Amino acid sequence: MKIKKIFNNNVILLVDDNGDEMIVMGKGIGYNKHNSSTVDFSQVDKRFVLEKGVSDKLIGLVSEIPTEHLELSNEIIEYAEQQLSVKFSDNIYITLTDHISFALTRFPEGLFVKNALLWEIKQFYKAEFEVALKSLDIIETKMGVRLPEDEAGSIALHFVNAQQKGQDMKQTYTMTKIVNDLSNIVKYHFGIKIDESSINYSRFLTHLRYFAYRVLHDELIPDESDSLFEHVRDKYPESYACAKKMIHYFENNYSKKLTNEELVYFIIHIHRVTSREN
């Protein structure tokens, strides 16, 4: 492969004989080089071999921002994947890099955007938020800038988003709002303080997240002829009364009608998460 563009001494764009492009990073890899030079791959620390559409967007982004921001974002992504034991979708190299670069650009101007979902992110995505806080430490060490905690919330959502089949960030915000609203419906209906460290609450939140995803993608579990709905409804009447409030919530806010099969799981999870507290 030959050099097509040199972004700086550490980041360059390569192209092969078929016209396929690759961004590579390595200390001094672009030093004293010129276009059409070949590359010593023993100097390469990171290769960005991404999907075609993602690769084009990343090349465009790197052309517009300081390349140090790409290096910083890459370090954060690798750290997060290791700590969370996940493999993010390629799109995070664009979304997170762009977000971090924009945040660092705003900082000297005193422009801060409050994260309206910060509390919810802390509650529902604790692991991602802890890693995001560490990301602020990495940014401070590399750039000498301490971004506010609100930015940790936004970075955490990028981690969450990159685990959800590459959905857009707006949908991730909507999912987080749904989880928070449904959780509050349960708390207020029963008038209790739920133990948020319990395994039942953890299971409940997991169910809510996957449920919110299915709602937004019109993938609700269909009704079945041998449904357990009537049995579960009669066995846990108070949990069913709470579930009915969720029905109204989705009808009023999202024009969605829940299936009885979805209600079966809701009623069971509501019973589990509230019976211990009661």
TrEMBL record:
InterPro entries attached to this UniProt entry: BglG_antiterminators, CAT_RNA-bd_dom, CAT_RNA-bd_dom_sf, PRD, PRD_sf
Domain PRD: 64-169, 170-278
A GO molecular-function annotation: RNA binding
Residue spans crossing the bilayer: none
Keyword terms of this UniProt record: Repeat
Keyword Phosphoprotein: no
GO BP term, example: regulation of DNA-templated transcription
NCBIfam families documented for this protein: LicT
Name the record gives this protein: PRD domain-containing protein
